[in-house]
Amino acid sequence: MVTGAVWPHAQPPAATPAAHEADPSPASMRFDFTATLRRLLEGLLSGVLTRATQ
Known about the structure:
InterPro entries: TetR_C_34 (IPR041483). This protein is an all-alpha fold. The chain has helices at residues 2-10, 15-22, 33-52. Helix 1 (2-10) runs antiparallel to helix 3.
């Protein structure tokens, strides 16, 4: 589910670069798929492991 949620945001449609030329401010919201997925999974696993030891 996490991958399905992250992938579309990391792979914008072809029209996005053209829109960013007109208004570059949203370009700062782009992120790297691999790094974002890693951070999300690390957080999820950390929470699961913490909860399992309680």
